[in-house]
Amino acid sequence: MTGPVIRGRSHPVRRFFTINRTVLSADDLAGDLRRTTLPGGLRVVSESLSHTAAFNLGFFVGVGSRRESRALHGASHMLEHVLFKGTPRLSAEEISASIEGVGGDLNAYTAKEHTCFYARLLAEDADRAVAVMSDMLAHSLIEPQHFSSERTVVLEEIAMGNDDPGDVAHDLSAQRLYGPSGLAKPVIGSVESIRAMDRDAVVEYWLAQYRADDIVVSASGAVDHDRLLEQLAPLDLALSRRRAPATAADEEAAAVPEPGLVVQTRDFEQLEAVMSWPGLALLDPRRAILDVLVTVLGGGMSARLFVEVREKRGLTYSIDASEIAYSDAGQVSIEWACAPERLQQIVDVVREVLDDVLAHGITANELAQAKGQIRGQTLLGLESPSAHMSRNGRTVLQDDPRTVGEMLAAVEAVTLEDVHTLTRELFSAEPTLAVVGPWDEDRQVSLG
Amino acid sequence: MTGPVIRGRSHPVRRFFTINRTVLSADDLAGDLRRTTLPGGLRVVSESLSHTAAFNLGFFVGVGSRRESRALHGASHMLEHVLFKGTPRLSAEEISASIEGVGGDLNAYTAKEHTCFYARLLAEDADRAVAVMSDMLAHSLIEPQHFSSERTVVLEEIAMGNDDPGDVAHDLSAQRLYGPSGLAKPVIGSVESIRAMDRDAVVEYWLAQYRADDIVVSASGAVDHDRLLEQLAPLDLALSRRRAPATAADEEAAAVPEPGLVVQTRDFEQLEAVMSWPGLALLDPRRAILDVLVTVLGGGMSARLFVEVREKRGLTYSIDASEIAYSDAGQVSIEWACAPERLQQIVDVVREVLDDVLAHGITANELAQAKGQIRGQTLLGLESPSAHMSRNGRTVLQDDPRTVGEMLAAVEAVTLEDVHTLTRELFSAEPTLAVVGPWDEDRQVSLG
Lengths: 448, 448
Known about the structure:
Chains A, B: GO terms for molecular function: metal ion binding. Chains A, B: This is Insulinase family protein. In chain A, 43% of the residues lie in helices and 17% in strands. Chain A is α+β, with helices and mostly antiparallel strands. Chain A folds into two domains: 31-240, Cytochrome Bc1 Complex, Chain A, domain 1, CATH 3.30.830.10; 260-437, Cytochrome Bc1 Complex, Chain A, domain 1 (2-Layer Sandwich), CATH 3.30.830.10.
């Protein structure tokens, strides 16, 4: 059915604009990258960028919800919270005030395979970020009364997530795509696991998991690598004394995707829908192809799904396609929110779009457009100094050797045939459709 | 009750860190600013910044929901949508594809007093952004079938907002703080006004409101001011032919704040609460003082409210204070989400914090901390080239003559007495408390 994104004329854009392209590459935006492994195993990567007054610092720890036992479900995230609650040298308020009082930000997040603590401040205040964050990671007190008040905070955070249709739909999707593996569980834990969580067990988990050899420190901006190494030496020493538990981790159950519809009925006005298929693992070289495919399908307002579902039919405010990748698994998703009575109609349009790509692939015009989009977005993204910190921290932790330039070259090399082959591999399977919102028991949905 | 943010020792932070402060000022981050008014009245401001490959462009139109009659409630936002739907030269897909195909972003938002269309792309593609956006603003077709499909999209957007507890609570607050003035209405309109909205009336509204003399074009990054002027000349000419309606706008009713509790019962897990007081207008010189006050109360994890409500008592995931300013009015708000049974306890703690500041003012330590925080955040914010575009566009449209350096100097000059005086002026009044979520009819809340 659907034609190319730019219809009618062959090069309408070129006729209307003056094209004045100079060649900017990823190298133009790269800084001076240095990487050192300290004696205790702490890996330090820094990228010194000129023309920024900011210092960005991140501690990437290789532990997330995936590694948790049933009793410790949510422990990685709980730890992320309680490590802000004070050390022998600094109270919780002093930790925040030391960074915020100079206009900086200090924050953290927990994912399924890693936890990250990060700060951004003026370079003139770099030393305090390194000192405070090292102190938190190695010397937190995790006092019982703080643990207990943070337990209530996390229960509030769970309630907040339950009021967010997108969060709930993504958790439902993960349960169906990754069950019964460790990737199926929500990062935050459950009301039951958080209520029952034992402070001493979390402290033990911290001592076992926050080890020098499983942490990457990444800095970017106005950075002095040698000074950073010097300042991190005590942390490296402290965390190198920690040892992984002698017993090997339990063998993890394999993911068994369970396609079909899964519904959580909630009293919202809209239905939130996430349609997913198994995707590609983090280091799979075909992710460059997947990037192109996802961009063509749902990478913005000119993408096929947006044009067909919103622009032509006005069925939803927005519809996106995206991919998520973990070390050994991934997912591709299409998501939107809509009035309940429009669900089947949108599913049918999505199905038509996918069937068209399955049968005919994408067009040469779409391929060129997607490559331009990925190149421009990547280069614009690298303008932010904090993006370098974040990318370097994650790629070093994940043993991903590819530079941005190599990734862009891989995208540039993608062919129409590559995209067609991958489309058939991923989208021939029956999807999971996770739906959250008002639901009539009699409602039937055909996934085509 | 509450002490200063940094407790116990007088300078704990200084003892733990090496302080190595050089003096960075707003001027260090400013670019080459140029401003021109074209013959038709279009104002053009550009800030050329070195060391960025990006071009940021925004069209700031001085029309928002405040100016709308009852029948046109939501027309400014509806216009923002339909101006993306095509011109004689470009279809909707071509508009999006022209910017997205080179990795750029093209988007827009509508506020109560202005509407903004903005793009960010690589400087090598600057020309196409100026061409496409000028075409949209002056020559959109707004075809009836596109208007009608966009009507459905906006109704979906209203439903999405109704599922967002924060959006609903803010709309309730505004109704109570600004009723019956034009600021009381939600920007998006109502289901009734959108369903009934007439395409021809919206086109007429567009022709009357999008005039050269009420639009500011702001560009930042890798900008060539003279080339920009040349490219904008046709837009200036086209929009200068448009004339404001001969009849003056209706006299707007004055805002009459109505304090006390207002509840919208919804089947969420948490209650969303927004407590508000009338604040300061946009150009009120006391906004520098208010900035300090809001920072001390709720500007982060070291702020009084966060420390008292979350750190010490674990009652909520987060609590913030903020201010909003319009041309002739403003509001100060404190907001949080919590389990329904904790509402009264949190209101009581907020009341205690405010009573303490009303009685004793803030501490010298808090004042210094807040100044450092505002300075650092402002300077870090200016590192983003798009922030310059956005700030320049808004300040020129609002006739705000202050530079960032002047604003920071005003903050630096704030005294303890200034803060105490303003606290008494703003917080002696009874607040409005807007609450959205599960609600038991018998529940009583005392605002102290």
